[in-house]
Amino acid sequence: MNAKYDFLIVGAGLYGAVFAHEVKKAGKTCLIIDKRSHIAGNIFTKKMEDIQVHQYGAHIFHTNNKEVWEYVNQFAEFNRYTNSPVANYQGEIYNLPFNMNTFNKMWGVVTPDEAKKKIEQQRRANYVEHPQNLEEQAINLVGIDIYEKLIRGYTEKQWGRPCNELPAFIIRRLPVRFTYDNNYFNAKYQGIPIGGYTAMVERMIEGIEVKLNTDYLVEKSKWDSIADKVVYTGPVDAYFDYKLGVLQYRSLRFETEVLNIPNFQGNAVVNYTDRETPYTRIIEHKHFEFGTQPKTVISREYSAEWKLGDEPYYPVNDKLNSALYQKYKALTETEHNVIFGGRLGEYKYYDMDNVVEFALQKVRDVLGNM
Ligand code: UDP
Description:
This protein is of the alpha/beta class. The protein is 33% helix and 20% strand. The two termini are 13 Å apart.
């Protein structure tokens, strides 16, 4: 083959950027295209009032994987931000994730033993040996009071479905701890790139040609002809023209506002866990970087039902969608020159560190076979 590029990378998000960086380092040529008007996919950040605003929702890098941590640190210096969101339930404030501070506020218990007894009591009343859904799993983990005040409303708003129709694993993303530790993640390494994620991605793809506002699927065969291999990080069902059906997503909508005060809520993330408040959380961006600017920027985050044409954010990992994805996955295996990757390309609820890890694995694999 004598195509112009060794690789065409569709999507300038984290997966595409890592892949492109490695390809270039190995002496291969590549072109990145993205249908949006900017790079960095959903980790895109942009300055407003001298504050880095996370345009597609809060992103906090966290990982246990030392290699991944060292990898991203090549492209940015990370600050010491530790995610410790608070939950606001009808004006009552609780610490997250579920820990001794939460249990103390909820029940007045002081020692881990007292907290365990309280949860055990509530669990016994509702115990299910093999939790089949998020509701059963949540009650097993933390009891009914926490489920009712801090989980049920938030989760149903976020996913637009009752908790007993959602998979148990979603709630197992959150730690339950019997220490007074408000760190949301059980990760060894955590932080936010100083200067924003966009600058980090810019550094990853330095020296690589990028075409923005370019929709691969509109002229697929033209783009396919210019490269030997394609790395596709868009929605997998869109690639196949939805021929087996449409995979569902949850979408998000943000209302961003500049306020003429220095501090609106005293924390980067406040979750509104009751069902009545229409948004799921408010992000105050300056607190991700310990900002002292005179103004502040906040984003109210609304979860939204997704329909074709909306921005996809979260794959819906229920049985129906998982089964449909498996069928698409079988199709991807027949596309020998195309690599499908990332949250959309693999229809997986990946965190950023997973994306980096899997992109690195894949690109090494592919380069090794060239
Ligand atoms: N969750 C909850 N209450 C909260 C925060 C999270 O019930 O205050 C549940 C909810 O079901 C959510 C899941 O935990 O979907 C995972 O939350 P996470 O913060 O990991 O979601 P992400 O940051 O990926 O949106």
